Amino acid sequence: METAILSGLDASKALYQSLEERIARLKDQNITPGLAAVLVGNNPASEIYVKNKTKKFEALGLKTDVFRLEESVSEDELLSLILDLNKNADFHGILVQLPLPKHINSEKVLNAIVSTKDVDGFHPENAGLLSIGKPRFIPCTPKGIIFILKHFKIDLTGKHVVVIGRSNIVGRPISILASLKDLGNATVTLCHSGTKDLKYFSKQADVLVAALGSPEFVDASYIKEGACLIDVGINRVEQDGKSKIVGDINQESVSGIASALTPVPKGIGPMTIAMLVENTVLSAELLLN
Ligand code: NAD
């Protein structure tokens, strides 16, 4: 079987094209969607993530500012910046890049972002809206998964979607989204570290979402022939003395058995950034209504 490669670069390009008109309409009303990115400390991976995210905003003519704070910043100082940004009309979205230093309570900080600027979709109010089927800001990675499937005309209706991983930012929200009548309409099984006999479930998947954070964990023995595979993992590994990024799926092992597969890199990664832009544009639009 030929395995189709679901390119996140192609799908995100289509989204950016569709955003151009929405951005132009906002600019006609003197509104430029803006993102405030808060970066604490000097974590090199966080630096790269924030750079990649803000680069897209700049390319589309949107506003973006990075607020850099020392690793030693106190929780109160960080909270005070968030409260200022909540009130700052230039920013329609606020992103706090994780992880935060250990002395800071990440949950407290994320919950301090006003829910109407929570473009990452992590605030309990947005998580609650999603869980009752009335989503406002959907977390970017799961939203990107639904978008890429639609882009490549992979219909979830009636399919069995099996998700590996139950985090609040990927696994749990994608399991909810895929089950919603309007967005997925699939039958969903959510597997996690407490699941007994993972293969029993994963081999039933028409669509398998691997979001467990374990390099190349899922190989051919976990899937059924013809399954569509979504590889969310971003894992840095050392191979032949070089550092490289691999997903949670052993792409070589499943090639020729799966019907479709998102690559790593250039799969779900670009979709996540595209959805951050989309959520920020949406936030600016919601302000008008
Ligand atoms: P997490 O560590 O918060 O959650 C991992 C989940 O996997 C947990 O719920 C755990 O129960 C489950 N799990 C771990 N080992 C398991 C096993 N052996 N069997 C079954 N379940 C298992 O991770 P996360 O934040 O959801 O991220 C998952 C992966 O996705 C990571 O590699 C992360 O880097 C990547 N990620 C990528 C993007 C992107 O844009 N592509 C965005 C977010 C996260």
Short description:
This protein has helices at 8-28, 44-59, 75-87, 106-112, 124-131, 140-151, 171-179, 198-202, 251-254, 268-288, and strands spanning 4-5, 34-40, 63-69, 93-96, 160-164, 187-191, 207-210, 228-231, 235-239, 242-246, 260-261. The chain is of the alpha/beta class.
Descriptive account of the structure:
By secondary structure, this protein is of the alpha/beta class. The protein has two domains: 29-115, Rossmann fold (3-Layer(aba) Sandwich); 140-269, Rossmann fold (3-Layer(aba) Sandwich), CATH 3.40.50. It has ten helices and eleven strands. It has a six-stranded parallel beta sheet. The protein has a three-stranded parallel beta sheet with strand order 3-2-4, with helices on both faces. A two-stranded antiparallel ribbon has the order 9-10. Strand 9 and strand 10 (242-246) form a beta hairpin. The longest helix is centred in the first third of the chain and has 21 residues, at 8-28. The N and C termini lie far apart (49 Å). The structure holds nicotinamide-adenine-dinucleotide.
